[in-house]
Write a structure and sequence with these properties.
five-stranded mixed sheet, 2 helices, globular
Length: about 70
């Protein structure tokens, strides 16, 4: 399982969102920690980040295999 680090914007958003949305996003981030290359992720054009939809929201993340890190 990968370690997870949130950007300051991600942490701020999660701290302000509703509990149900927070739980949905947290669960999806935990699934991404286990397998960051799920079949329904998409790459962001011309960037290294990947994106994953959760309802109306998207999780942008990068995987650093050498550091065993998932950056959201």
């Amino acid at each position: 399982m990968l370690d997870c680090k949130l950007s300051s914007k991600s942490a701020k958003f999660l701290s302000k969102c509703e509990e149900t949305l927070y739980n949905r996003l947290k669960n999806k981030i935990n699934k991404l920690r286990e397998n960051p290359f799920l079949s329904d992720y998409k790459r962001v054009l011309d960037r290294k980040e990947k994106t994953f939809r959760v309802g109306d929201y998207r999780i942008l993340y990068s995987v650093f295999k050498g550091n065993n890190l998932l950056f959201v």
